[in-house]
Amino acid sequence: MKRVRWLSGLLSAGVLSFTLATVGAQVAHAQRPIFLLDLTCVNRGSGQYQKVSEDISVGRELYTAVLRLWPNAAFTCKLSGGSGTLRMEYGISDTAIGNAPITITVYLDGNQVESKTASPGQVGTLLVNVSGGKSLAIETACARATNCEATLRLFKAQIEPGTRSPGSR
Asked: Could you read off the pLDDT of 5-51 as tens digits, one per residue?
């Protein structure tokens, strides 16, 4: 009788452990950032964008770029409509000193929500609350008409599920 109870307890503990591990893995998976180009996206500009994995020097520090955007790149991606934050960390290589800065503009459901300008040798961060949004558009443009040859490198380009940008409620 003791042996049956002991085996029953052991079996119950095993089932409980398995259930908790499965639920925990599902929760962890749901909270992982989503790479921007893993969304359904369409190109709509004359410039290009490209998924990369390359090391570059920006501000005399080494960064690994995951996405490269040329001037006049424009693409639109479909969002799930859930809560989240777009996180983009970007820079222009130290070797592009003398080239025009690049402005990156973000639209949520067709409305401009953020615009930042990146200069060669400088790193920046862009955070946009995309909660409830259905589409996200990103455009790049040269900040001036001359020496427009640099490319913008993104070190992070992801949607962070279930988070909001600082200062929003």
From this structure: 655 665 455 544 444 344 344 444 458 999 999 999 999 888 899 99
Q: Is the Cβ–Cβ distance between 92 and 153 less than 8 Å? A: yes
pTM value is 0.77
Q: How far is Cα 154 from Cα 127, in angstroms, rounded to an integer?
A: 13
**Two tokens at 123?**
């790193």
Residue 2 burial by CB count (10 A; 0-12/13-18/19+): exposed, middle or buried? exposed
